[in-house]
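Aim 2, interim progress: modelling of the N,N,N-trimethyl-histidine-bound target.
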Amino acid sequence: TLELTDEQLREAIAARLLTARDRTRGLTDCVDDGELTAQHSRLMSPLVWDLAHIGNQEELWLLRNVGGRDPMHPEIDPLYDAFEHPRAERPTLPLLPPAEARAYAAEVRGRVLDLLAGVSLTGTPLLAAGFAFGLIAQHEQQHDETMLITHQLRRGEAVLTAPAPAPAPADRLPAEVVVPAGPFTMGTDTEPWALDNERPAHQVDLPAFAIDTVPVSNADYQRFLADGGYQQPRWWSAAGWEHRQAADLTAPLFWTRQDGVWLRRRFGRTEPVPPNEPVLHVTFYEAEAYARWAGRRLPTEAEWETAARFDPVSGRSRRFPWGDEPPGAQHANLGQRHLQPAEVGSYPEGASALGVRQLIGDVWEWTASDFTPYPGFRAWPYREYSEVFFPEPGQAGEYKVLRGGSFAVDPVACRGTFRNWDYPVRRQIFAGFRTARDLDGS
Ligand code: AVJ
Ligand code: FE
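Predicted structure of the complex, ligand included:
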């Protein structure tokens, strides 16, 4: 729990809102109006939609729901309602032009900072520990990751730059870590800004298993490619093979082969695939096929969370792999500090109690699990954040859970309990994976 005075809490909230807005501006001020309103991929919104949607959600939740203010521009609400218009359709809508979208988001923010100065942060559950403000800081940061994905899909000259992470230390790591059987408390009741799908805390009791110490690297993945992995249905699930054929998958997204060498395009620059980086831009189905080829499987999300949070000495669950303190630069590659994952084996100080590395940051990790509610789940504060993505009772899930967060995720939207989800065919997201296996005799 955060031991902050009321004044410190207000300052921390304002700082997180500001970090998000600086990033939003960095991602939208670097391209011209034509690029802001263009659709770079049918999978994504034009950047100018994200910009005004960020402002609109902030107005809805903070100015209207918390502050009781009247709508500023009620006529634009439907344009920025993500459920009314699929992404592919958004460029054809009468969206606010860039200058107006910027002005709207800035005006909302000014009023939100006034509201923050005066509102009680103890009364209602929506405001306790500043939750509603935390929700909005996380929401903006989630869209900042979405906008970075749009930048990755955009063609043309590079506009974003960031320093590369330091190379991984040269220590020899075991290929896998054994996680002992036993009870583990998954999810949370105490994380102040946890979203509804991370709650409530509940006990799971898993058999022992082994999990990769680090994410699967490009070099690992190239062995699967070189072994004809994409040509052999036996490594793929039925749904996976069907998709592999229908979409004609032959390698991770953004990879091309030239003169016998794999190249990869990232943020407008093309270079040889770096062998020691975690593999990125694969579908769930490719991850699943690789794991089967390797004689392994994807971890379930309960296994992932146990590997990340379980402290075998105290038996309790940590907030982060390294402990309870918030992420620092020594722990994890987060927050778009680097516009790429760090080499596998990086961040020894961010290892979990069991010795598993890079669980937080670098790449989102596909898990074997469908996105379903925890026992005792209660939609809060709105059904459309998580509940509408859960399967109907008796139906198969449509979404797979991803854990851990990528280099593009901000610390405010990332923790040991955080759950992300997407369709198993998606791979424009910053997703990789690690593998696991049952232990013999367990
Ligand atoms: C949790 C990343 C799946 O981007 O669709 C943003 C987050 N929800 N605005 C998404 C979200 C509403 C969501 N994911
Ligand atoms: Fe949104």
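Residues 84 and 201 are 33 Å apart (CA to CA). The chain is about 30% helix and 10% strand.
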